[in-house]
User: Fold this.
Amino acid sequence: MNALSSASRSSTRSGRRIALTLATALVVTLFATQNVLADETSVPDSLAAASSAETASKDLFKLELPGGIGGPEQWTSPDGLKSALEMMALLTVVSLAPAVLMMTTCFVRIAVVLGLLRQALGTQQLPPNQVMTSIALFMTLLVMSPVWNKVYSEAVVPYTAREISLEEAWTAGVKPVRKFMSAQIERTGNSGDVWLFYKYLPADTPAPSSYDDVPLTALLPAFVLSELKTAFLIGFQIYLPFLVLDVVIASVTISMGMLMLPPALISLPFKLLLFVLVDGWHLVIGMLMESFETFS
Assistant:
């Protein structure tokens, strides 16, 4: 009896274990099925969120051109390319206009002479470049004031009042400047420079009877070359006394056996003393002002 009762108990326990195992397996299967279904429903949502984020980032960094500006196709078209070239030419003219205008004035001669004066004195960077340029600009303003006043009264004022066209304003404005340049070339006797550049013009260009008939393409470089020649001649006259002083001091130092002492170091104080005693600035500026032909 005891054996039967113990066998029945053991079978009952094993039955309970099997039932518990089956129940656990069923619960695990249900949870796994639920997770798979949840994952399948969440994938489209995540893809949609990722695509929306990508679209937002593209919209954020997207460059939208203002209306009327066109695009690459319009820019590379014949009309667009023509506009770009015109704009580039305009910017080039605007950037070079100050230098070109200074070449039509007496600034070249004054700047070169003052530079040669500083080298003749041997003062290196004294006076500074800013001071020398300022003196040259003020002297240029003094000499060119009558010319610019005539350009303003005969070209700018009528054009702004809509009395003349742009071509007429250009002709009237160039006339005083042409007269000034031709007067300086004639005064310094450098009319041959005009023919130097004139012979390189097209063969069908008629021979000029006066400076008014000379094209600006030949008159402008001839004027600059004439100014350089005149400035070098004035610079030679300024250089000569200081050169003589350098030679005398160098001879004295060599005769005294002071070979290791630079002659330029000794001559500099004597140059400054000589320049101050003869009122050198007054003489140089006066000689420069008298070298220009007055404009009337």
Remarks:
- Residues 96-290 form one domain.
- The mean pLDDT is 75.
- The CA atoms of residues 120 and 240 lie 9 Å apart.
- The first helix runs from residue 2 to 60.
